[in-house]
Batch of 4 targets.
Target 1
Amino acid sequence: MNAVSASTTPDPEGPSTDVPTSPVRWARYVAMGDSFTEGLWDPYPDAPDVQRGWADNLAALLSARRIAAGEAPLEYANLAIRGRKLRPIVAEQLDITVDARPDLVSLVGGGNDILRPAADVDAISAALEDAVVALRATGADVLMGTGFKAGGSLSWTNGRVGVFNANVWSIARRHGAHVLDLWGMRALGDLRLWSADRIHLTPEGHQRVANAALVALGLEPEDAAYDTPLDAAPPVAFRDSARANAAWMREHVGPWVKRRLTGTSSGDGRSAKWPTPQSWPRA
């Protein structure tokens, strides 16, 4: 079991073509999850309506290393759908994942649950553990993720996230899973690595997480500086900060609250972007 460590300044255009020599034993990878694993907001340059994200980047990095070692490309599927809570992720995606017979699965979720006022963190964690047990019974390696350490207006979630993270580490220890330590990534404390909605990463943020995932799996990162914090930002005038906060409330918090009140989700009517394993990267 390996935790995420240190950082990088990845190329925002995509994974590096300089492939380290770390061996990759996995041949088929399935990613389960919510918007974080779907890849919001990291659009493909040639298909801006399709999100890329850390899991697609991780699959590309693993595949490149397999090809460099003379192996067949990695096969990859991404079942993640934005807005999903942990138990719906398991209910909708677990059987499909098991049927695909992967040897590597990432299962990262729980953030949408934790944002709800009545969240039961231990119940969420129990559902996660049941899924990990089922996946490990197939022989697949499992990569889980901790929650992020939030700042500013979302810092109220940190107590819940801390309990959830402790449970994630305990589940990993009990069942021999890997942990992507998002809480411990220093670079992610910088708002410049977050999109305008402040709860999803920028393309550079997703690449940094892909490097962290390599480390969590016991492999060398593409860039040893993947968790190096950005240079200090210039000070922002109070007036500009207030305007930015007001715009965030109007454009992102308001619609989120409306969806909660109306019982709708940003993922309603959506399906997985890569529902079946395919040779990666796509032709």
Target 2
Amino acid sequence: MKNRFAVALAAALVLTSAGCSLDSKAPAAGEVTVVIGYQSKTINTVTAGTLLKAKGFFEQRLGDITKRTNVKYTVQWQDYDTGAPITAQMLAEKIDIGSMGDYPLLINGSKTQANERAKTELVSVTGYNAKGALNMVVVKPNSPAHTLTDLAGQKVSASVGSAGHGTLVRALTKAGIDPKTGVEVLNQQPQVGASALESGQVQALAQFVAWPGLLAFQNKARLLFDGAELNVPTFHGVVVRRDYAGQHPEVLDAFLQAQLDATDFLHQKPLEAAQLVAQDTGLPQEVVYLYNGPGGAVSFDTTLKPSLIDALKSDVPYLKSIGDFADLNIDQFVVDGPLRKAFADRNLNYDSAVAATANPITVSGQDPVCNVAVTDPALAGELWIDGHTTTQPAANPGCLLRAIRDANAKGEKVIAAYVPDAELGTRWFADHSVWVHSPGSDTNFLPFDTDAGAQRYIAAHPGAAVVDYQQALAGAV
């Protein structure tokens, strides 16, 4: 199985997405070209990819340099489905800056370090989740599987070497299933795996955002395992070829400044940011906002936090489990100097930002149904009603259920309703949550994003029971 993983990963590293240009156009005299590798549909990288590109922040920053120096800059954007082909192109010195998940970052650093011109450095984070909720495992809606152990002996689709695959390996190991022999992992690109799940060729799909939420939203999948159960931080970050950064430090500085611009925009206008990303990627806006909205699974924060770096170090054994990779010195791979400079240039305190751990954007405001202020991020929900220019906050799950019921009674169309999982805190769709009637609890009805989570609560609270979504809506008080 290990050899199969190694062969699959090697194949992934040489494949590129159809339609992407592989060769950079030769720059004219006095012109500098920078090639950016990004993953448009991996929406926790949007501040270094899709949103950044849509808003033109990077080009604007480079344009400011041109005004001062007369040096012209050309930006080439190359879109991929996973991090592996970005690494392959960086190895070939054809991509200068790329963004990818934590496990692919490890592979990137390991693969490139032997070549001084290709050698990369991790210079910023795009988004992270402190518990690991960026990666999930889904099954078909009618699947008999309700816990991860139910997958023993089954076929699971995953992109070998991806963050989703890394979480699967960790989760199976924790559940007592050998990830090499206990399941059959099919190495597939996310969209191929989604089709395989729908057709029944595989029994589960392990992927990173936004695929689990997308398939649930489309009623094609049910969440089986939330990566937050592992309670291990997961993140996506930005790598740069050290040789390129040495030759063009002003380009890296402009990129990091632009990433901060995109991050600020997302924090200030999360709904508009989600809509822009949806327009550019073809993903439903409701799915993008699930993850990237206030209180979503993604905390958009560029800083290289010690907790994230420690998690990266703990991921190293994963490399050994899937192939023969060179040892990577994480402390040398992570370089925060350029980002510290970007912060200083904006008169921002980098150390204070590193120490911050709360999601920078949370659901807030006045709950119009329960007529109370929304103050607890662990309980706060959000309602998106068609025709409204803003979303409606809900102080707790009970208030959210009442708001949905009221909107339905008025004939208003609910575009989406979001609620945090009562156990793990992961934001999920209210109509795809598992609702538990818990007499005596603060809100009477509690949402869980998986059957397993609901059953853990019921086991600890006699009298609690699962109810369907319509029962929860009818019973909310």
Target 3
Amino acid sequence: MDIRSLRYFVAVTDFHNVSRAAEHLHISQPALSQAMKGLEQEIGQPIFRRVMGGVELTDVGKRLRYHALRILHAVDDAEEELGTRTRLDTELNIGVLPTLAEDYVPVILRAFQETTADAPMVGLREAHTEGLVKEVLSGALHLAVLDLPVSEPQLAVEKLWQERLVIVSPPSSDLRGRVPWTALQKVPWITLEPGYGLRDVLFRMSLAHGFQPQIVFELTSAHALLGMVRAGFGSALVPYRWIQLEILHGRLRMAIPDPLPTRDIGVVWRRQRRLSVWARAFRDFLLTAGPSIVEQAEPVTSD
């Protein structure tokens, strides 16, 4: 039983699928399948069972994963101390919400690279919160910046900052100033598709005040959402930072719902798998730099 076989084994358990694990490891699927077959022969018992869409661990496989992680963590510690990191340890794969990919995250990432010697190659993946959680769990991403709360026991979670949300409407709308949620029952809403935290906040606040929001469009991008609002199809609940220029130039109208809703932004990573040195460095930089960047945002005021 060698280290390479254990790394291959853990990758298969992360992805629950041999093909996806092989792609992640940059090896052929037949080679990975053969390595797993050899590991089972060495142990003398099945470690996987086939299920719809992939594989799952047997009881023996679960025990092997526990010991494999302990061994690999010890090897990682030794490589880090001795300075013998592999190519994969020079990579940093980050997941981010599309609603954060235009401003906050690029600024933080640039600051990280400018203040870090020998900064790693960075892979950036955009997806909604549910998709990012799955990719962190699979091992495809080292960590992800997304909406909270995240109720996945296999993930460690740290809050980064909190965003205030406002209502944005076309210029012809009567919604302005402070508006109680009870006055929003007949508003046609444009929101993001299921899986995005902004949609969850809209439903949570509406249901808490006794009504179901009337959704006219569910979209996948902030640009499309604001475009539909400008065209007069309805209103949307969005972060204030999205619309400052739109309000300034009179293209949209803003109202402040009462009480003012917020969404929490956080970073997540897997509990059972030790972060690489670069992933730890970027996580720590996020926790330090993230809140200070958000503090530079202008205060929320009604138009």
Target 4
Amino acid sequence: MSLLSLDKLTVRRGVCPVVDGVSFTVQPGEFVGLIGPNGAGKTSLLRGALGLLPHEGRSSLSALPAAARARAAAFMPQGREIAWPVTVETLVALGRSGQPEDGTAVEEALRRMALQGYRGRKATALSGGEQARVLIARVLAQETPLVLADEPVAGLDPEAQIRTMQVFAGLAAEGRSVIASIHDLGLAARHCSRLLLLHRGQLIADGTPAEVLTDQLLADAFGIKGFHAMTPEGPVFQPTEVLR
């Protein structure tokens, strides 16, 4: 049973489609990286899939009542502003809003994001990268089958980026699924089981990192060349040259 199914999803800005007839499904156990250049439609696709933007076509999530949708999927938007001076533990526990109290879920989310030592600190007093980790933990505490995250590793230091990607891959290994928009193609190649490549609002490639990060597709979508290698720890990809 798919956790997300899109059928010709279209999101418009005025009369212009910023997401143009995109169709795909996400199955349990997948870590899907949503990649593409700036303006490709990644954020609009995630928000349209959740019913947060008006759209045409069908999304299995947006068709659900709000309460059922909250149980089916957790969403981490790009915006990371924390307005309330609550403790880290309290903020992470907000991911349980509307669900039974579960200290175990909160504790596990703190552990996954290496935040046990932060639990009593005011979230508003943390650095931007630390706040991002707290917001990821809040999403994890929701314990939904599907997580949608919009640029979750943007602005994080390398250790936190790798940890976050490993956490998401771990969720997939447990049978949950993650779809995350990612600008760092090296991280996407290393950790994602599948990549969706958007270009000008259209889905132009869908497959494994090796199938999507080809010379031709990189040139078409990004105007770049890249270096590929396979190591004992997994694939490595590094953009190397601008072609345009």
